[in-house]
Amino acid sequence: MTEPTQWEKDTLQTLLFETLKEQRRKRRWGIFFKLVFFGFIAFFIFLSKHTQQTTFNRNKPHVAVINIHGIIDDNGQASANKVITALHDAYEEKNLQAVILSINSPGGSSVQSSYMYDEVMRLRTLNKKIPVYAVCEDYCASGGYYIAASAASIYANPGSLVGSIGAMINGFGAVDALHKLGIERRLITSGSDKGFLDPFSPLKKTDEAIAQTMLDEVHQQFIQDVKAGRGDRLKITDDLFSGRAWTGTGAKPLGLIDGFGSVDKVARDIIKNDNLIRYNDENNLLAQLSGQFGTSFKQAIQSELITRW
How far from 90 is each of 72, 87, 95, 99, 235, CA to CA, in Å? Predict the structure, then answer.
């Protein structure tokens, strides 16, 4: 095979360098256009925020909306810590006119619900001129209703599910399944009740009695707080505290709610102020856009700056 001439080597080298320069040039232009694109997004976010703050302004009398959405637990968005922090932020504003608890929850932790109930009642006592309303969305059941009962007035949609004033412990038993599979359960405890409600052991009568006592205590606390919050508006019936849920239509005659309405309707027609400030709206569109912008910008820059040579 003929050895390449010096001219051929030089030509090949020149082509390779030109190719490399062209690829780098394209990469630079790619970064430039992406920066321009993300610059437009940043401008849009700034403009939207400016418009929002012009329309919905904390410097004017406003209504604080506190979201309590989803399962109530200590790690989620509907935790006592996050909701109470938002409440405190709202009450620190001198232009706060009213508070709306926007509730869309099937319930959850009785302890977290109790914390929120107690704090709303405390804040209402300290700030008597600032009314607190609860608005039930799809679900305002169990722990969700527990919190709603702390408000001065409760509103819902006729189709909302409301109530479920009860307590429960649920689980499963797999004793027969283990037996059929030939698996032996070995549980060693120090203390006769340490294996309380173990799903792989037969249910003991003593465990069932202990669990029932615990549930009854939690249930009674729930009932007492609902009665304290709702007062004479409640129509006590045999099934009011049975754990049953009602639609908004069925809940109103029982005194579980005071009327029908959404957050916007309560603000507009009852409070007479539609300047709504959402203090803990994790799903705010602008927040999503800001987060997506930051992530996409970082990924784009990283991908463009990685050298492949």
Answer: 21, 5, 9, 8, 33
Chain segment 152-189, per-residue pLDDT in tens: 999 999 999 999 999 998 888 888 887 888 888 888 88
Q: Do 45 and 166 belong together in one domain?
A: no
Question: How many domains does the chain divide into?
Answer: 2
pLDDT confidence tier of residue 43, bands split at 50, 70 and 90: low
Residue 3 lies in a domain: no
Give CA–CA dist 119/83, Å, rounded: 10
**Phi/psi at 139 (nearest 5 deg)?**
-130, 135
Q: In sequence order, what are the residues at sequence separation of 6 or more whose Cβ sits closer than 8 angstroms to the Cβ of residue 158?
A: 247, 248, 249, 260
Q: By residue range, what is the domain housing residue 271?
A: 56-278
- Based on the domain organization, do 110 and 215 belong to the same domain? yes
48, 61: one domain: no
pLDDT number for residue 29: 66
* Residue 62, CA distances (Å) to 94, 220, 269, 274, 282 in order: 10, 37, 14, 7, 19
